[in-house]
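Re: weekly structure request thread

Next one in the queue (95 aa):
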Amino acid sequence: MPDIDLFNFFRWGLFIIASIYCVVVTTQSMWSWYVWLATNDRYITILRRYVIVHGLRLRFSTFWGDVLICALLMLAFTLMMWAHAILRAIQWVSA
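Done, posted below.
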């Protein structure tokens, strides 16, 4: 009978499902905003210019905290994946 580690199976399954879900939801949201802002209605044109002006005036220093948190979470995830790969390699060698 094969030795299947359920934790690794759950971890990889969750990683794949969460990644696909994140990409699909983000793509749908960006596409709906693009379609809505691409219309030629007068008020939508004013709103589009308003969004562009505020995007250009955006102060990036207020978002560096969130960017730092996202970068640290990605680093932690990468380190955990690396540690699991090392543990798996050790298990294969010792088996």
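The chain has a mean pLDDT of 84. The first helix runs from residue 6 to 37.
Next request, please.
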